[in-house]
Amino acid sequence: MDAITFPPAPTNEPNLTYAPGSPEREDLVVELALLEKEQRSFPAVIGGEHREGGGAEIKVVQPHDHQHVLGTLRNSTTADAEAAVKAATAAAPDWRAMPFDERCAILLKAADLLAGPWRQRLNAATMLGQSKTAFQAEIDAACELIDFWRFNVHYAKQILTDQPIANSPGIWNRTDHRPLEGFVYAITPFNFTAIAGNLPTAPALMGNTVIWKPSPTQQLAASLTMELLEEAGMPPGVINMLPGDGLDVSKVVMPHRDLAGIHFTGSTPTFQHLWRTIGENIQGYRTYPRIVGETGGKDFIVAHPSADPDALRVAMIRGSFEYQGQKCSAASRAYVPRSVWVKIKDQLIADTDALSMGDVTDLSHFMGAVIDERAFAKHEKAIGRVQGTDHLSLLAGGQTDDSVGYFVRPTIVESTDPTDQMFSDEYFGPILAVHVYEDDHFEQVVEQMESFAPYALTGAIIAQDRAAIAWARKTLRFAAGNFYINDKPTGAVVGQQPFGGGRASGTNDKAGAAVNLLRWTSPRSIKETFVPPKDHRYPHMG
Ligand SMILES: NC(=O)c1ccc[n+]([C@@H]2O[C@H](COP(=O)([O-])OP(=O)(O)OC[C@H]3O[C@@H](n4cnc5c(N)ncnc54)[C@H](O)[C@@H]3O)[C@@H](O)[C@H]2O)c1
Ligand SMILES: N[C@@H](CCC=O)C(=O)O
């Protein structure tokens, strides 16, 4: 008989520092050298079998050194997708019948493997493939992914133990937290190894089988994550990974009768396309697919005249330029009162111009390159527009160079017009738009920016005045799913600041939290009557 058990209580994985001379730095350098030398092929994983996709070849390169090829993948075809659906369907009965504790143990083992022997391999892959610095790789590929796996086990257990609180005499009520009927399609972005690892495993933990389509530019770390999960004991067919652009995969998977949910993180247009496709196919599904998507942002920092100037300056630099601004949470618009602006402007520009950028295997850099040619071109265009626009002035950065890697200098643009597109459009890179306002216009500025952008992901208020903080917290209640007071708007920690946003930023089903895991269950209410009535007549009938 199964005992009632309690998995180990989760705590956040501590960040290692990679300071010169530290053992983690030495291990990381070794892994970087190994992975740089390898030229891998990245196969699909279908029903536990590793096999080359049948479509066009895509080279996976280092963004900061785009002639350096890390490996190649082949676009997955419709035939690959059909095989993956078959494998996910075949694996489902055994996986959902597997005791919950065993499913938990697989993810807890994966977390321990990542905290130990796999840590520097996945960090190195994330640095080389996604151009993250050692620190940015550590907080993502190591700590956040470990936290997702450990905290999800804790929250899943909470869900299973959530049972009806009332039972009429002679009756026992129970809730059966079933997995969904069908498979889940997990589609993941380039920018976070942790998100890529969480999106397929969260539904799997709840007993679902999954088709996972990672981003081609994150494929190195995605393939290693898949290997790690296999080592942790994830059975064949539970998570089926299909590399490539996903276009042919979606042709098969999106209209499939057994599509039970999509777990997506990426841009708003892609998510809206997927949602529309589900709408167009709505009559063909066995059950209504769950749609969970976390998408774009136009994240803000608003400073009040009482703001601490140094706190503001550091929040602007770190919040906007860490990982080249390629976090959905990155600050890309700031509203600063003139009295504070005059105190920080020169230092802010000097600090920004001094940020070192380059090959991330040189650990002295603050930043690497943007992810690919498309992102580079988008930034060149946005910066090019500044020169010809009267109300915009370039204060820092603006230089771009793609001769070796896709480098875009951290850029600050001042705009006298808070309705410029720089305050509404997501560029997803190192460009910060600043609007300087007169000190007595704080409330008008906040009311204007509250809904000027369509997004509502992250935002920050920097202020010392408690009444101003309280007012901003209330006025900006729906402007951000993650709201920070006197801090940068990036760096949410699992279990501490559950992450996700509303409006055009997504369905706000907080990653790494119970509300997210609930979306992958379909509860069944069970009522048992111990001594059923034997007479159909009611007492009032006499
Ligand atoms: N809110 C969040 O939690 C969060 C987190 C990370 C990134 N993001 C957002 O992600 C975006 C950047 O990531 P990106 O460039 O990888 O986004 P993207 O939308 O270009 O791609 C996301 C994923 O969707 C895939 N895709 C695109 N079309 C598809 C289709 N028809 N069928 C199947 N798959 C398809 C891509 O290959 C990739 O795997 C930004 O907008 C950023 O704000 C949001
Ligand atoms: N959760 C991350 C952002 C993820 C999106 O890219 C943060 O809070 O900075």
Automatic annotation (TrEMBL):
This is L-glutamate gamma-semialdehyde dehydrogenase. InterPro entries: Ald_DH/histidinol_DH, Ald_DH_C, Ald_DH_CS_CYS, Ald_DH_N, Aldehyde_DH_dom, P5CDH/ALDH4A1, Proline_metab_enzyme. Keywords: NAD, Oxidoreductase, Proline metabolism. PROSITE patterns: ALDEHYDE_DEHYDR_CYS. It is an enzyme of class 1 (oxidoreductase). GO terms for molecular function: L-glutamate gamma-semialdehyde dehydrogenase activity. It catalyses: L-glutamate 5-semialdehyde + NAD(+) + H2O = L-glutamate + NADH + 2 H(+). Its EC number is 1.2.1.88. It comes from Nocardioides astragali. CDD domains: ALDH_F4-17_P5CDH (cd07123). Belongs to the aldehyde dehydrogenase family. Pathway: Amino-acid degradation; L-proline degradation into L-glutamate; L-glutamate from L-proline: step 2/2. Residues 55-520 form the Aldehyde dehydrogenase domain. It comes from the Bacteria. The keyword NAD applies.
